[in-house]
Amino acid sequence: MQTASQNLDRVLVLEMVRVTEAAAIAASSLVGRGNEKAADAAAVEAMREALNSLYMDGTVVIGEGERDEAPMLYIGEKVGSAIGSGPKIDIALDPLEGTTITAKAGPNALAVLAIAEEGCLLNAPDVYMDKIAVGPGYPAGVIDLDRTPTQNVEAIAAAKGVRPDQIIACVLDRPRHEKLIAELRGCGCGIMLIPDGDVAAVIATSDPDTTIDVYMGQGGAPEGVLAAAALRCVGGQFKGRLFFRNDDERARAAKWGIADLDKVYDLEDLASGDCIFAATGVTDGSLLEGVKRKGKVMTTESVVMRASSGTVRWVKGEHRLD
Ligand SMILES: O=P(O)(O)OC[C@H]1O[C@](O)(COP(=O)(O)O)[C@@H](O)[C@@H]1O
After folding, report:
1. How many other C-beta atoms are found inside a 10 Å radius of the C-beta of residue 6?
2. pTM above 0.90?
3. What is the pLDDT of residues 17-46, one digit of tens each?
4. Cβ(131)–Cβ(240) under 8 Å?
5. ipTM value of the model?
6. Ligand 1 pocket, CB under 6 A
């Protein structure tokens, strides 16, 4: 029997792309249709079918929700064609990251997936996470959740050898970020406000073409794990701390085995060991082109990255409709 690490090596790297492609293609027929649920359901069903064709004993550790709230790809669901006998793989997934974006035909909707050996992905509860992320090339500790946004911008600017007003931060456009936005503007920092999609936004910090230096603010904790898996592959720094709005959310975290509710998570706490991250664009965005239909062919653009080798593969797919 192959070990999980051999299986990551030999089989799953490129197979991951088929899985995200399938979800992206399924969601693409619902881009701009104003129906978030239908777009998500199409992506979920396609991703599940594709996962079930892979030789592995897979467990969804981050998925569509808990068993009683998600009929498919719920947390704990077993997937793969070799359950009980194949290599044990943990899977964090978001078949459609950006359901509202998709419904409104906005930018940066993705189908995303991260896999790792058993026990290597944080079983993050569905709560918010305070996040800060930068791409590669900075000294360790340049970002710190316990510092103010201004101090973080100043540290990034100093490390980059520029003024704070030459730093661009990306922030989700939400009322809860009013104070953060005001402080960033106060220190002269430029802000790219995005409507949704902070997995793509965190990854964008690693791509100089996007001009985004830092991602800051509160987004979903599950999305934090997915983004951390990607940053582990391309380099960068990430800090995350779970944010609880009530006791029910605290209880949910305890249920998933989170003992220290105030812990600041580094990249390796969220996604450790060898891991693979794959994404396919649903709509055009900073990371990937969206699905396009050209006559009888659908085109996709995907990326698949691996932490142990640092390899990043860009995959253009042509899918014949007939
Ligand atoms: O919309 P909220 O509650 O501010 O949550 C932020 C989260 O929602 C998203 O923007 C989109 O998530 P969905 O695809 O589940 O709608 C994430 O990228 C982000 O982490």
Report:
1. 11
2. yes
3. 999 999 999 999 999 999 999 999 999 999
4. yes
5. 0.96
6. 96-100, 172, 174, 196-199, 219-220, 223
